[in-house]
TrEMBL record:
This is Adenosine deaminase. It comes from Pseudoalteromonas carrageenovora IAM 12662. It comes from the Bacteria.
Length: 815
């Protein structure tokens, strides 16, 4: 927008007559609370349904706790913290019901509430790392600065992290970010000293004296103190501010001692954070100290920027942008423990979740896997114990009162949590660094096959898990299934096919796979989902994660991708071969087939130095589930393998080789086993003109043919798709929930033939600032407001998704 438009809006909002930071910040916070947050009598906080989408976008930049604490400040009287009874009642009535473990409010809808209470929800796609909300990470950063700094600096040379920081602020680095956290820590101490020192007599020291004879008075922030904080935090020993400032540096310790009479399960870290923030906001409203407003504004701005570095922003699209948040290590210190996350994910006292399929990345060595699982399961046991203890305390308390009194009749009816935990081991997709060196001319003689290093790592990880299962026979009570995650542009399903096959032979049957989430070309995404189904031999009860490519509206994708795409010419060839084969089966217009075949032969000649036919290339493509390490004796001769299952796998490969000689010839060239030239040419980039005759021939109907073909595969095999609306809106091409493909899959649009069983997950709820209840809320609101379903039809569709979760959850004794 032009500058004058922005300036006029700011002038109207900021009350430029006074130029007061106090009035500005008060107005901002009041607007935030009044516009979005609706407090209820029982202490819960709700967001107006009409503003829910707007709120969800806002909290990617502004921590949601700001709105909640502002509403609490404006609606309820803050207690005198010297009064033990008042503070305890405040924690129990206003902090415990909503923000004991999660700062994410939801909508008020009795239909959704009843559905959740009656059936409970199943989160069937969630990564345990990446789920912590911003408030807990913020507290960790301030309370464990050295551990946090150590983890943060571990990612200092990561290219993706450098991009994330520089996109947020020019010149921002990990070092500068740590400096800002030092500032925030010092500001926090100043703010708490002034807020609680004025009337609590916790702090009665002179912070800044103009004259030696000046009478001592309670601490009060002045602008020079903020300047001193800035200077102080440039020093290496930036946390020993008490040597310079004469005030209570351990103010939080003092306050915590005053709150010792409140039970720990009520006085949680998040509740304490809320308590301090409400006190700051309340003091802001009544103070005349402009410097306090400056200090608080400064503190909140630093926290907002911190939020933007742990929560994906609405302008950041694609998996590469998302991945920056997974590798910046800002969550690492916090997520070394899991108990807080179990509480957070179950959301409310009664609990939203019945079943949590938590995904974790196994290691290649047995001791690391033992340590990781011990932490995950020990914290789950502690979580269960904590919930049971809290429930027992309520029961014991109620037993002591007259059983026929009104108090007894109104007693709390909550039972201990019923949250069940299962674990999904997900293998990590990694780029083939070896082939990049090959393309760059850095190596020649050591080339093996595509993803040689990753294939070996995956096999080691599989064997480590097998050894773990042998050592701990009860592991099957928790480890229910397997997945492969991370950037699918780095490694396709073919790389994971051998280990999935060996896991299936070992008796495992629960498999899912991230596919079609992010893609260079829509054809590539559709093909990847088909490869996952076929190469991994997915069957009844198995699932596909995301599957966006087989749902997204082709015209929406084409509109937002632009007029040209740069991609590997080998992938372009694979896409066209895949499309050609299935267009032949559907008797598509001959002109389109002619255009595709002409480009296939051209690309085949460029890559393989021979114009193979589309059928020959498709036959070779179908062989990619085979392990090339075994097929081409890259580690040892066939006869030297001792394990019977590997010998059987080799025998099957030899039989296939005899009956598919031409396909195996192309398969060998594809891997560049004896001559790496084909593999190098496969990687070469080309520009695909989206207005060329071949691309123009790919219209809405032809893309839908391919999407429906893959959906048909899923339906015939009685599989389901894990849909993750907020994740897809952040990562994919969508700008609004109403554009999401799940509504075609649910069969509530005019698009026919797209129906498929759908289950729901929250993916990385911390990175996307969401939870499973809010994912259901988004769908419910969109079904009514955008799709136009009636009230009861909308909730019926929601119930269908919930019941799908019960059916397709992975079970210990499932098929």
């Amino acid at each position: 927008m032009p500058d004058h438009v922005i300036k006029n809006k700011l002038s109207k909002f900021l009350d430029s007559d006074t130029g007061s930071v106090l009035s500005f910040l008060n107005k901002i916070l009041s607007t935030l609370g009044e516009r979005y947050i609706e407090p209820t009598f029982n202490g819960q906080f709700l967001v107006d349904s009409k503003l829910f989408g707007e709120w969800q976008e806002l909290i990617t930049e502004v921590p949601p706790l700001f709105g909640i604490c502002s509403a609490l400040r404006d609606f309820y009287t803050f207690p005198n913290h010297n009064n033990r009874a008042e503070t305890k009642l405040y924690f129990e009535r206003f902090l415990r019901p909503q923000i004991r473990y999660s700062a994410l409010p939801s909508i008020k809808d009795p239909r959704l509430d009843e559905l959740v209470e009656r059936l409970k929800l199943d989160d069937l796609h969630i990564h345990l790392n990446g789920s912590s909300e911003i408030e807990i990470i913020w507290r960790t950063a301030l309370q464990k600065p050295r551990a946090f700094a150590k983890e943060l600096k571990g990612a200092s040379n990561n290219k993706l992290v450098k991009e994330l920081y520089s996109a947020e602020e020019v010149g921002l680095t990990q070092e500068k970010q740590l400096g800002k956290l030092n500032v925030a820590k010092a500001l926090r101490v100043l703010l708490l000293n002034e807020v609680f020192g004025q009337d609590a007599n916790i702090v009665q020291k002179t912070f800044f004296k103009r004259d030696e004879d000046e009478t001592k008075q309670a601490f009060k922030i002045q602008l020079i103190n903020i300047e001193q904080v800035n200077k102080l935090t440039e020093l290496s020993n930036s946390f020993n501010v008490s040597e310079i400032y004469n005030f209570d540096f351990d103010i939080e310790g003092s306050l915590l001692a005053q709150l010792s009479h409140i039970e720990d399960d009520i006085k949680t870290p998040l509740a304490l954070e809320s308590f301090y923030l409400i006190a700051m906001f309340g003091y802001l409203k009544k103070t005349k100290n402009e410097a306090f407003g400056h200090a608080l504004y400064y503190y909140l701005l630093i926290k907002c920027q911190f939020n933007r570095l742990v929560v994906q922003q609405t302008h950041q699209f694609g998996f590469d942008q998302f991945q920056k948040f997974t590798v910046n290590e800002m969550r690492s210190t916090t997520e070394k423990e899991y108990q807080t996350r179990y509480h957070q994910l179950n959301y409310s006292d009664l609990g939203d979740l019945d079943y949590l399929e938590g995904r974790f990345a196994p290691s290649r060595d047995l001791p690391s896997n033992v340590d990781r699982l011990r932490t995950i399961l020990a914290d789950y046991k502690h979580y269960q114990t904590t919930e049971q203890r809290a429930n027992n305390a309520i029961i014991d308390k109620n037993k002591k009162v007259n059983p026929y009194s009104l108090k007894d009749l109104l007693c709390h009816k909550a039972n201990a949590t019923s949250l069940k935990l299962s674990l999904i081991a997900h293998f990590i997709k990694r780029p083939d660094k070896h082939i990049n060196k090959l393309v760059n001319g850095e190596i020649r003689l050591s080339w093996q096959c595509r993803h040689y290093e990753l294939r070996n790592q995956l096999e080691k990880t599989r064997r480590s898990l097998a050894a773990l299962q042998e050592q701990y026979i009860d592991l099957s009570d928790y480890l229910f299934g397997f997945d492969a995650a991370a950037n699918e542009l780095d490694a396709g399903p073919e790389v994971f096919a051998p280990i999935f096959k060996r896991l299936r032979k070992a008796g495992y049957h629960n498999f899912t796979y991230h596919a079609g989430e992010d893609y260079v070309h829509l054809l590539s995404g559709i093909r990847t989902v088909a490869e996952a189904i076929d190469f991994l031999d997915l069957k009844t009860g198995n699932r596909i994660g995301h599957g966006t490519a087989i749902g997204i509206h082709p015209e929406l994708w084409r509109e937002r991708i632009g007029n040209n795409i740069v991609m590997k010419q080998g992938e372009r060839l694979d896409d066209l071969v895949f499309a050609y084969k299935h267009f032949c089966d559907h008797e598509v217009n001959g002109t389109l087939l002619h255009l595709i075949e002409r480009e296939i032969r051209t690309l085949s000649a460029l890559i393989y130095e021979e114009q193979y036919s589309p059928v020959e290339l498709y036959d070779a493509w179908e062989l990619r589930y085979i392990d090339p390490i075994l097929a081409f004796e890259l580690k040892r001769q066939h006869g030297s393998y001792l394990r019977s299952e590997i010998k059987k796998e080799i025998d099957d490969i030899l039989k296939t080789k005899k009956t598919n000689k031409k396909a195996f010839e192309i398969f060998e060239k594809y891997h560049g086993v004896n001559n790496a030239d084909c593999a190098i040419r496969y990687q070469e980039l080309i520009e695909v003109d989206m207005t060329c005759p071949c691309e123009r021939a790919f219209n809405y109907e032809t893309f839908r043919i391919l999407q429906k073909y893959v959906i048909g595969k899923i339906n015939r095999r009685h599989m389901a798709i894990e849909s993750l609306p907020t994740s897809n809106v952040r990562i994919s091409f969508y700008e609004h929930y109403r554009e999401h493909h799940i509504f075609d899959w649910l069969g509530v649009t005019d698009e026919k033939g797209m129906e498929v069983p759908v289950v729901l997950g929250s993916d990385d709820p911390g990175i996307f600032a969401t939870n499973l209840r809010n994912e259901y809320a988004h769908i419910l609101l969109t079904l009514e407001n955008d799709i136009g379903l009636s009230s009861m039809d909308a909730i019926a569709k929601l119930e269908q998704i919930v019941r799908n979760g019960k059916i397709w959850r992975f079970k210990k004794l499932s098929y």
